[in-house]
User: Fold ABC transporter ATP-binding protein from Miniphocaeibacter halophilus.
Amino acid sequence: MENIIKINGLTKKFGNFEAVSNVNIEVKEKDIYGLIGKNGAGKTTLLRMIMGLSSPTSGNISLFGGKNEKENAINRKKIGFYIGQSFFPYLNAKENIEYHRRMKGVKGRKETRRVLEIVGLKNVNKPFKSFSMGMKQRLGLAAAMLGNPELIVLDEPINGLDPQGIVDIRNIINILNEEYNTTIIVSSHILSELDLVASKFGIIDHGKLLEEISFEELHKKTTSAIIIKVDNVEKTRNILNDKFNIENINITNHSTLIVNDNIDHLNIINKTMVENNIDVFEIYKRESSLEDYYFDLIGGKNND
Ligand SMILES: Nc1ncnc2c1ncn2[C@@H]1O[C@H](COP(=O)(O)OP(=O)(O)OP(=O)(O)O)[C@@H](O)[C@H]1O
Assistant:
């Protein structure tokens, strides 16, 4: 599959501060690449360098196989982006997109109707300033998809949206990817919000890319645990050891055991405990969330 973006050793310094530090990234054709990192991690700086809005201190970017900055500049015509562009507050959706269409040199008023239809803003006549947050983000996406680019770059398009707004953006991203074969890079500070849409993730913290991982690999890594609440934790542990050959058990308090093992037959365990005169208050499987995985990776929630 063709490399749409290949980045090697990319670094951006502001004075002595490294906002992006020796980053390597590969985005392939038809990927939906989720760039995850908390506020200030370096996401916007990285996306701005891809778009040519900021120049790297060192390292290489290749867009659509471009061998140098001149070739990248030409190839950027195949990219649409939404990195917080502003719209005119007193113009409606159509007028704002018409303005962007002309600025971009994209032909045909039909194109304005097409993109507004995809984002569900075709019949909205009120001015931009009275749009909801979700509508504003959708208008941003409409501007990014003008001219049907091969790659669309979206910076935090779901930031601050309510659940319905998040679903709307996800649906639009899926339509672009599946129906128009668009490759997408989308940044967010919440991993689980991109989990339903991204095919690959790049996790960035303090300017460094900590991990680049496919959806499948990520989901293999997020493990599940069994929580067992009983009246005798020691006896329960011994039974789990002896009868079920389960070793990986943590006793967290006088009534709770956490078993890090993939056990499917919770009912059999429950029955065995009861047969051994143990009162089982609760037994259930807890899926560890993607967010747990992410915070483990970056070293905790408050790792500043
Ligand atoms: N022009 C600049 N001059 C100095 N420092 C900058 C500049 N632009 C960004 N930074 C710093 O670089 C770091 C990364 O910023 P960046 O905006 O890329 O983060 P981000 O991951 O996009 O976060 P956010 O979601 O808050 O935008 C931050 O510490 C920021 O203060």
Q: What stands out?
A: The CA atoms of residues 43 and 187 lie 7 Å apart. Residues 14, 19, 37, 39-45, 156 surround adenosine-5'-triphosphate (CB under 6 Å). The radius of gyration is 24 Å. The chain has a mean pLDDT of 90.
